[in-house]
Amino acid sequence: MAKKKTGNPQKEDGYTPIANELLEAMAAFPLTSMQYQILLIVLRQTYGFQCKSSDLSIGYIAAAIKRNKRRVGQEVAKLISANVLTEYQKATYSTARKIGINKHYEQWSMSTDAHSERERSQKYVPTRSQGMSTDAHRGMSAGAHQINKERNIKEKERKDFPSESEEPDAWELLEGEVIS
To answer: Rounded mean pLDDT of the chain?
Structure first.
């Protein structure tokens, strides 16, 4: 039976032994936050029970990290293809997939697709010193900037041309002139 969580973790209540070398390799390897969460759950369910692998369903992992099941499945597949996780037995309709950590971290390799996806998710945000307006630093998107720019141009055009109420009446123009 699992102990109730008290907010005061103690090593005597259980711990997950992991080699420092493996932990350092995990920290240095380029993974997304969700991939790290998945890795931690797999570590807990394998090394935490002194096992090399464990039957872990995508649904179980998704519930443990409070993420979308479909997305977790995609990330687990990426970790397996990168050799970070080892799939010892494929999932069937009645049993979960048996997976574990590949402790041979020199075999880990992210495909170029995973790297480019990570780079796409890391957006470049120029600083104010690079010419970005203060609106951009308040979180306005590029589309919102374009709309504001167009709105400002229209307002400027309106100011350049007098409105109907500002236009002089034709009789006022003729009052000072002599008609011959």
So the answer is: 78
pLDDT in tens, 96-135: 999 999 999 999 997 645 444 555 454 444 444 444 445 4
Stated pTM of the model: 0.60
For the chain, give the secondary structure using H, E and C.
CCCCCCCCCCHHHCCCCCCHHHHHHHHHCCCCHHHHHHHHHHHHHHHHHCCCCEECCHHHHHHHHCCCHHHHHHHHHHHHHCCCEEEEECCCCCCCCEEEECCCHHHCCCCHHHHHHHHHHCCCCCCHHHCCCHHHHCCCCHHHHHHHHHHHHHHHHHHHCCCCCCCCCHHHHHHCCCCC
